[in-house]
Q: What sequence folds into this?
């Protein structure tokens, strides 16, 4: 029943009975967490054999004879380049493998741009009076934090079910102070949507005021399908940019953080050869080489891109029931109430819940007082401010199924209370 179709007194009665239910739950002293987008222990257990792929008896040499125990090969070992080029559909000579986290590579990329500029810059971005960066929102808070930390001005772009609103983007990029855009193009954080072919094409082709404009293409969930029969397909941004003469526009990132071990995986960066030629001297000043033994370990364990995809199918068997708990509870408890709507992703790590405008913070507080931690409300928007106070990011992966079910029961109860509180006041 849609709550707005109830009379005021019916709304008040319902609110009173839900508040009673809430007080009972509150007294249980729960301590549950829906905020962390990290793999559950069951997923990590399924990766443990990776640690046996390289030991004291293993040949420590890369296929080109390089001794991976030693300094060198700043852009990664050739077999790791091949493996990840195959997996992500990239060119081996445009891929850089290094470090344990793609976020680190993204931060370094923009820090370098601020200090030295990118290929084609007239001056370091940091010497411009202002650098603006487009932030499709809801989005990944850490993307926004990178830009904010480096002193850029964050410009919000609304997300649509096809990706960032391209009419808005095309208008904004006419401003030469707009130097780039953050994109999580497949199973986006937090909406779980995949950019349409049309969106990718427009991003690749659009005319920009800044001739050194860059797309931060963070394909963090490239192979993170939940359902074998429902896999989203993402258009090839490099091919489309190439066709438009904009290959240099793309900075591509990915990692094995949610394939093997977050924090102990392998990160990759891909860009045109001309971009890499501008960037590599700076990286060489920063390090003599990344952890090649870890690259070797990943290559020896997975061997082929097909094996990684098989491994992802196994991980999906752990994630799928958790997403199903989230979606079925939302359907059952909020389905016809008019209190909220939400996304139903085919992959990735999140479900995006949109509660009635003005009710997200109150939902967060009610959940907190009942022992359920949510991602900070507002975190999915630049500067931590959701203009509609509506979006809540749900991360199903980390809690056990039992805890997840309990947490979802509390969350949906709190949404109904928060919405009814505003309705009885209206
Ligand atoms: C969109 C997105 N990019 C990057 C990351 C972090 O990746 P990494 O561990 O490679 O730094 C995350 C983690 O949640 C993410 O959601």
A:
């Amino acid at each position: 029943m849609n709550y707005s179709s109830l009379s005021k007194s019916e709304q008040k009665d319902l609110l009173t009975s839900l508040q009673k239910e809430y007080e009972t739950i509150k007294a249980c002293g729960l301590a549950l967490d829906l905020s962390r987008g990290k793999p559950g222990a069951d997923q990590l257990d399924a990766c443990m054999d990776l640690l046996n792929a390289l030991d004291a008896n293993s040949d420590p040499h890369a296929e080109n004879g390089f001794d991976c125990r030693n300094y060198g090969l700043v852009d990664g070992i050739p077999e790791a380049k091949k493996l990840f080029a195959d997996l992500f559909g990239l060119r081996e000579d445009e891929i850089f493998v290094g470090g344990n986290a793609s976020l680190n590579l993204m931060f370094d990329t923009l820090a370098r741009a601020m200090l030295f500029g990118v290929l084609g810059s007239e001056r370091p971005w940091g010497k411009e009076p202002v650098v603006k960066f487009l932030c499709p929102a809801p989005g990944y808070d850490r993307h926004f934090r990178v830009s904010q930390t480096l002193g850029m001005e964050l410009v919000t772009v609304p997300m649509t079910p096809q990706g960032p609103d391209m009419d808005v983007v095309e208008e904004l990029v006419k401003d030469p102070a707009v130097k780039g855009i953050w994109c999580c193009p497949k199973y986006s954080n937090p909406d779980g949507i995949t950019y349409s072919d049309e969106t990718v094409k427009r991003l690749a082709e659009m005319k920009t005021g800044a001739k050194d404009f860059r797309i931060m293409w963070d394909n963090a969930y490239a192979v993170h399908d939940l359902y074998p029969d429902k896999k989203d397909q993402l258009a090839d941004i490099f091919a489309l940019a190439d066709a438009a003469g904009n290959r240099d526009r793309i900075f591509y990132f990915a990692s094995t953080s949610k394939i093997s071990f977050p924090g102990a995986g392998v990160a990759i960066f891909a860009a045109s050869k001309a971009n890499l030629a501008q960037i590599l001297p700076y990286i060489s000043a920063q390090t003599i080489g990344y952890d090649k033994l870890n690259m070797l370990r990943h290559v020896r364990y997975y061997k082929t891109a097909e094996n990684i995809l098989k491994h992802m199918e196994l991980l999906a068997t752990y994630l799928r029931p958790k997403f199903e708990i989230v979606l079925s509870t939302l359907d059952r408890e909020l389905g016809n109430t008019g209190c909220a709507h939400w996304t139903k992703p085919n992959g990735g790590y999140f479900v995006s819940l949109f509660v009635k405008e003005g009710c997200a913070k109150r939902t967060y507080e009610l959940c907190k007082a009942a022992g359920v931690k949510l991602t900070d409300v507002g975190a999915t928007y630049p500067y931590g401010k959701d203009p509609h106070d509506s979006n809540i990011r749900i991360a199903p992966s980390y809690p056990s199924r039992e805890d997840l079910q309990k947490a979802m029961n509390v969350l949906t109860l709190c949404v109904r209370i928060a919405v009814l509180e505003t309705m009885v006041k209206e």
